[in-house]
């Protein structure tokens, strides 16, 4: 994990964990994993799952995932034409 990812994860984790200060870090990570629908063992939980879940935790369930919104096209025809390079 790069330093940037560690800093991002800690910045996202701190305010959320402060709200659940009655839980230990491991308990809180287990809570996050369960909320994210993680069914595998906790030691297999990736930082990507934690980062994206923490970013989206209090968002509308239909909200776009950060990083994907920039590529979003509401109109299918426009999306196809843009993908083929016919329009900018």
* Secondary-structure arrangement, i.e. CATH architecture: Orthogonal Bundle
Task: Estimate nothing, just give the exact number of structural domains.
Answer: 1
The rough form would be described as elongated
What is the level 1 CATH name? Answer: Mainly Alpha
Briefly note the structural class of the backbone: mainly alpha
Show unreliable segments: none
What amount of the residues lies in strands? under 5%
Predict the CATH topology.
Answer: Conserved Hypothetical Protein Ylqf, Chain: A, domain 2
Q: Helix proportion of residues, in percent?
A: 40-55%
Give the strand tally. Answer: 0
State the gist of this model.
This protein is mainly alpha-helical and 88 residues long.
Structure, explained:
The longest helix is centred in the first third of the chain and has 17 residues. The protein has one domain: Conserved Hypothetical Protein Ylqf, Chain: A, domain 2, CATH 1.10.1580. 52% of the residues lie in helices and 0% in strands. By secondary structure, the protein is mainly α. The chain has 4 helices and no strands. The mean pLDDT is 87. The protein starts with a helix and ends in a 5-residue tail after the last helix. Helix 1 crosses helix 3 and helix 2 packs across helix 3. InterPro entries: DUF1040 (IPR009383), YihD_sf (IPR038134). It comes from Vibrio zhugei.
Keywords:
single chain, 88 residues, mainly alpha, Conserved Hypothetical Protein Ylqf, Chain: A, domain 2, 4 helices, 52% helix, 0% strand, YihD family protein
């Amino acid at each position: 994990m790069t330093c940037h990812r560690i800093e991002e994860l800690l910045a996202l984790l701190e305010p959320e964990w402060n709200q659940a200060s009655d839980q230990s870090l491991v308990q809180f990570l287990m809570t996050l994993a369960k909320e994210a629908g993680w069914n595998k063992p906790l030691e297999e939980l990736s930082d990507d799952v934690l980062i994206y879940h923490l970013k989206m935790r209090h968002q509308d369930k239909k909200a776009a995932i950060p990083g994907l919104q920039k590529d979003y096209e509401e109109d299918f025809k426009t999306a196809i034409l843009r993908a083929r390079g016919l329009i900018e």
